[in-house]
Amino acid sequence: MKLATWNVNSLNVRLGHVLEWLQANPVDALCLQELKLPDEKFPHAALEAIGYHACWAGQKTYNGVAIISKSPPLDVQRNIPGYEDPQQRIIAATLPDAQGRPVRVISAYCPNGQAVDSDKYVYKLDWFGALNRWLDQEMTAHPDLAVLGDYNVAPADADVHDPAAWAGGILVSEPERQAFQGLLDLGLRDTFRLFEQPPKIFSWWDYRMMSFRRNAGVRIDHILATPELAARCLGCQVDKVPRGWEKPSDHAPVVAEFAPADRL
Hints:
Blueprint: E1 2-7, H1 11-24, E2 29-33, H2 44-48, E3 53-57, E4 65-69, E5 74-78, E6 90-96, E7 102-109, H3 119-141, E8 145-150, H4 163-166, H5 174-185, E9 189-190, E10 204-205, H6 211-214, E11 217-218, E12 221-225, H7 227-230, E13 233-238, E14 254-258
Parallel strand pairs: 1-2, 7-8
Antiparallel strand pairs: 1-14, 2-4, 3-4, 5-6, 6-7, 8-12, 9-12, 10-11, 13-14
């Protein structure tokens, strides 16, 4: 089973990229973030034409998440239950693996926070707290669970091109990293770090200052998995190719592959 995540920074603008990427990389599920379009504008017909189903939570101009999958999504959950939030940042669904075993897949667009002294930063930390409490429950109900998305947190200095320049700032501040660590403390595993990786692998590069050309990026897009699912992870990589396309998203897809349970 292959699962992927990609912040497309406007599905309306990047639909062609998504279709091209899916046809070249036929993953079982692709989690999208920053759709930036309302529900009624979601391009489900274009995805159905290439053999994919979808569930989504849209929002005009901002935010928005989706799960695009080969199998019809079941038990769809929109937003964090019990957490009042007009921003569309969570969509969850259950999908079968190759054996028909249910896998809970969550697409998450975590708040950016803007700056460490802003109200949006306070909201970000509060939102992570709500996510943590909900995932604790979800992991009990779903032993095979993956949370894929743009976390807007670079967990360690190895995930930042210039740690000294970024020190204490947004995406890398200690409270943000503690919030991310809180998810790992639940038992979730960062699938990228389950494997030896080359240095300076990132998933986001600013559009400015030729950041992509200089590889001046950060790794903020992650695939976290429960211990049961992580034990079957065969690999996790960042696909930088779409970041080099014309008018790209500022993020690159991240892909993880999992073996069937009976092949361990």
